[in-house]
Amino acid sequence: LPGAEVYPALERGVIDAIEWAQLSINKTIGFHKIAKYLIMPGIHQPIGVIECTVNKKAWDRIGERNQKLLLIAGKLTTYKFYQEVGDADAAAYDFYVNSGNEIVVLDDEVIEKARELSYAWADKVAAEEGGWFAKVLKIQRDYQKAWSNAHKYRDSLPPE
Fold first, then answer.
1. Cα 18 vs. chain centroid, distance in angstroms?
2. Per-residue pLDDT tens over the stretch 9-29
3. What DSSP state is assigned to residue 5?
4. Average of pLDDT values for 134-148?
5. At 144, which helix (H) or strand (E)?
6. Fewest 10 Å CB contacts: which of 19, 63, 136, 152?
């Protein structure tokens, strides 16, 4: 469905469920008014990607100094966005807890099965197609592996 048709379709029962965006965006749109359940975590999209696409010829014309400045601006924008979304989602989560919507937490077995199936699919596509997909998948998996122990030295106990 086109984005503008999703809310009314859900409201009228044309569709039974949606996956839309992060908690704060869903709250802003008002999905809590027409959808009783909120299923978490959103395992289908573990990250959000922010991008800026620039024409190669234009990029080459702006010079090295301006390229570096734009790269820095992009990094700062990404960090700022990540923090703002985190703050907004924390507030939205509290809202949903108190809104009367039912929060359904996926069982660990469901999350693991989704991971298993998505990994198998990605491995199959990488093996069949190779190229760019295989290259990106390898980089992603290597990065995940490098961070696999981060919970041991980065996280602390949640506040009480």
1. 15
2. 999 999 999 988 889 999 999
3. H
4. 94
5. helix 131-146
6. 152
Q: Which residue has the tokens 């700022």?
A: 80
- Tokens linked to 143: 């990065």
Instruction: Confirm if 111 and 43 have CB atoms less than 8 A apart.
Output: yes
Mark out the alpha helices in 18-130 (DSSP H runs): 23-29, 56-61, 63-97, 108-129
Closest to 89 measured CA to CA, from 143, 2, 22, 142? 22
Q: Tell me the Ramachandran region of residue 20: left when phi exceeds 0, alpha when psi lies from -120 to 50, beta otherwise.
A: alpha
SS3 115: helix
List, for residues 64-101, the tens digit of each pLDDT value. 999 999 999 999 999 999 899 999 999 999 999 998 89
The amino acid present at 138, given as its one-letter code, is: K
Q: How far is CA 34 from CA 27, 122, 131, 146, 152, in A?
A: 11, 35, 43, 42, 40
